[in-house]
């Protein structure tokens, strides 16, 4: 911060192959991204793939692009298909085909692929095989729209289509035309005769994508602690905004996010519960099918009537939800359970307020409205992996449910095992082998000296001493019961 001045920044913190990128507006976090050297099959990358299987039943084909799981190519994502032919008439098993990542692989699902290619630039998006010009809805001025469209038509080849991005507003036509030629050149350099599977085109690193999608003249500084990234930034700005290279600042320190007081904010992006300023809170849960967000009043009681109190919490929650969806890069179906919103008038107020704050998001969102159960439905287009996917994995202890067996459940599980093989009761002591995670859970409960513990229940039931031992070869839900005399294996 310069002499206490409020700044707009892009902060790029690099350490051990990971780059964390924070974009701040007036020192408030508005965007956050992660890039790792291990990331691959990224959104926008183009591959020469090979058709491995064709599934007419779902009108889709599985394509080998060299990743662990084959990508999925749906009929609707194959062009040209003017005659609406079925997929088995368009592609054949073993055929090599150029495809682009439309949606990155998630969990057990492979990447979603398309042949509707796009090459993104700072001001334009090139659409090979199209012949139309599309304009960002945010360019509302008709004169400006006509100026750019006319300029592009002067140089555009009939074999290409173009999307005019919002960033093109007010930009000199010569610069826009120069980028169009640059994008066409990038597309034409892709070799369509390579042997699959092979990466043919990398859509750029996250660093370049951030500049392409988020850099504007309103950015005061670009703070970086890695010289390789600085070189990458300088090369990009030399093409698009040479005079802004001076905004790049090298800071020789680790954890720039802490230095600029936003580390705490980024860490909160992994919390399940997010508190509101009013004292209410939202809870964010992820399932295979959708993301569920629940709003709670928490500590907030309000000073006026109940309806006004509830509406105030719901409006505040809408702002926070819009921010969390954008910052966490949550995509797909999103369901929001507001507090007691039944009146149509209040529902319209909520939808209008939520849409207003979703406008900060560059990724396409759509609010569908409330269901009969007063649950709001919306969607957000997938672009890259969410923060939760990049930074977490399923818990081996709970299997991703968020739940672990309590002491009573462990007792009955052990009881069933012993009753199936009562020979283990011949000795003075029962040996119970469990997974190391379960052993740690049991030990922690024992240390609290609670009255009803797993060990105490076994002792009271069988009048025998029990010993818990860990076995790293056991699964979470497995348990072995042995006699202390012969260590005979009990059935599970």
TrEMBL record:
GO terms (BP aspect): rRNA processing
Top-level taxon of the source organism: Bacteria
Domain S1 motif: 44-116
Cofactor dependence: Mg(2+)
Keyword vocabulary terms for this entry: Hydrolase, Magnesium, Metal-binding, RNA-binding
Alphabetical list of InterPro entries matching this protein: NA-bd_OB-fold, RNA-bd_AU-1/RNase_E/G, RNase_E/G, S1_domain
One annotated GO molecular function: RNA nuclease activity
Pfam families assigned to the protein according to its UniProt record, in alphabetical order: RNase_E_G, S1
Assigned GO CC terms: cytoplasm
SMART domains assigned: S1
Keyword RNA-binding in record: yes
PANTHER family linked to this entry: RIBONUCLEASE, RIBONUCLEASE G
Record-given protein name: Rne/Rng family ribonuclease
Species this chain originates from: Alkalibaculum sporogenes
């Amino acid at each position: 911060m310069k002499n206490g001045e409020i700044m707009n920044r892009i902060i790029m913190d690099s350490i051990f192959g990971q780059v964390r990128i924070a974009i701040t507006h007036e020192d408030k976090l508005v965007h956050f991204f992660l890039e790792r050297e291990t990331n691959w099959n990224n959104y926008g990358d183009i591959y020469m793939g090979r058709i491995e299987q064709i599934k007419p039943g779902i009108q889709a084909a599985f394509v080998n692009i060299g990743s662990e799981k084959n990508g999925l190519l749906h009929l609707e994502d194959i062009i040209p298909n003017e005659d609406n032919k079925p997929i088995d008439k368009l592609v054949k098993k073993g055929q090599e085909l150029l495809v682009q990542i439309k949606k990155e692989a998630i969990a057990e699902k492979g990447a979603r692929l398309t042949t509707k290619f796009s090459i993104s630039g700072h001001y334009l998006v090139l659409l090979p095989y199209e012949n139309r010009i599309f304009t960002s809805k945010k360019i509302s001025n008709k004169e400006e729209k006509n100026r750019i469209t006319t300029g592009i038509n002067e140089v555009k080849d009939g074999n290409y289509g173009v999307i005019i991005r919002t960033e093109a507003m007010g930009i000199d036509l010569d610069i826009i035309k120069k980028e169009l030629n640059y994008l066409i050149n990038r597309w034409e350099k892709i070799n369509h005769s390579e042997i699959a599977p092979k990466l043919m085109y990398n859509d750029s690193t996250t660093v370049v994508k951030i500049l392409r999608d988020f850099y504007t003249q309103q950015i005061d500084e670009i703070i970086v602690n890695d010289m390789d990234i600085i070189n990458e930034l300088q090369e990009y700005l030399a093409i698009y905004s040479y005079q802004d290279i001076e905004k790049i600042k090298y800071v020789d320190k680790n954890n720039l996010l802490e230095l600029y007081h936003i580390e705490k904010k980024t860490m909160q992006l992994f919390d399940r519960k997010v508190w509101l300023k009013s004292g209410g809170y939202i809870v964010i849960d992820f399932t295979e099918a959708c993301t569920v967000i629940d709003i709670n009043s928490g500590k907030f009681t309000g000073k006026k009537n109940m309806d006004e109190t509830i509406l105030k919490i719901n409006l505040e929650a809408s702002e926070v939800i819009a921010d969390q969806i954008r910052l966490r890069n949550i995509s797909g179906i999103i369901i929001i359970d507001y507090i007691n919103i039944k009146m149509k008038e209040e529902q319209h107020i909520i939808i209008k307020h939520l849409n207003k704050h979703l406008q900060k998001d560059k990724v396409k969102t759509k609010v569908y409205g409330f269901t009969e159960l007063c649950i709001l439905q919306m969607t957000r287009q997938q672009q890259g992996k969410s923060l939760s996917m990049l930074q977490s994995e399923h818990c081996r202890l709970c299997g991703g449910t968020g739940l672990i067996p309590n002491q009573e459940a462990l007792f009955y599980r052990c009881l069933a095992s012993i009753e199936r093989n009562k020979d283990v009761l011949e000795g003075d002591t029962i040996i119970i082998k469990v997974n190391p995670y379960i052993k740690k859970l049991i030990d922690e409960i024992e240390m609290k000296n609670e009255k009803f513990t797993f060990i105490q229940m076994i002792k009271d039931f069988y009048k025998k001493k029990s010993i818990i031992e860990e076995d790293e070869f056991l699964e979470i839900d497995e348990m072995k019961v042995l006699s202390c005399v012969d260590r005979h294996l009990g059935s599970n």
